[in-house]
Design brief:
The chain is mostly helical. The chain is built from six helices and two strands; from the N terminus they run αββααααα. It is flat.
């Protein structure tokens, strides 16, 4: 079901990030207080945050399994190709995120609070763009009832959603670098709500187009 090379990359990243998290937690006098700015920093969080990356990797792995349950056998080769790209992309992003958290907590790099926030915004933007590039390639399950979109409509929806995600990612990257932090909540929140509304509008538009096409077909057959 999953490309073997991609699966091995996932396993290697999962083992590395989990092992790094366990090693870092073992160095802490109290796992409930991990210094974010290096040893001696008063800015602390729970050491369990280090396990967010391997946990996220497992969650990302669920998507191909869910697709595998829904897709017919003839679609499995395309699922295999898509899942390989999805898993490798998410593994690389999560590995970079874990490396950043570890190097900061160990004091190897010590960005300011603003630098940390901007870096987080850039990482979120990169994740959105990666997901936006992969989403249009997602295999489409066959339609099971008249309410669902057919394969062609679902492909159009995925392409539109991919463009929205790439646009959001670019906004997070540029906004995180250029905008003052006090504007982030309003700007990014508005953009995400706009993207959600655009996705809902496009889904309604596709169903409306199908209704018009069905009406034309009925009129043509009656005449």
């Amino acid at each position: 079901m999953i490309d073997r090379k991609a699966l091995w990359i996932f396993i290697a990243v999962f083992v590395a990030t989990t092992g790094a998290a366990i090693w870092q937690v073992s160095l802490l006098p109290d796992w409930r207080h991990m210094p974010l700015g290096g040893p001696g920093s008063h800015d602390t969080v729970s050491g369990l945050v280090l396990f967010a990356t391997p946990t996220s990797l497992l969650l990302f792995l669920l998507s191909p399994f869910i697709q595998w349950l829904a897709l017919p056998k003839e679609s499995l080769p395309s699922l295999r190709r898509w899942s390989g790209k999805w898993i490798v992309s998410m593994s690389v992003v999560m590995a970079l995120l874990q490396a950043f958290v570890l190097t900061r907590s160990l004091g190897i790099v010590s960005p300011s609070g603003l630098g940390m926030a901007r870096g987080g915004s850039v990482i979120i933007g990169v994740m959105f763009m990666v997901m936006g590039n992969i989403t249009p390639k997602m295999p489409v399950p066959p339609r099971r009832n008249s309410i669902e979109l057919d394969s062609w409509e679902a492909s159009r929806m995925l392409r539109f959603g991919g463009k929205l995600l790439v646009g959001l990612g670019l906004a997070f990257v540029l906004g995180g670098i250029l905008l003052p932090p006090e504007y982030w909540a309003r700007v990014f929140g508005s953009l995400m709500l706009t993207a959600l509304a655009a996705g809902i509008w496009y889904g309604i538009k596709l169903r409306h187009e199908r209704s018009l096409q069905s009406a034309r077909t009925i009129i043509t057959s009656d005449s």
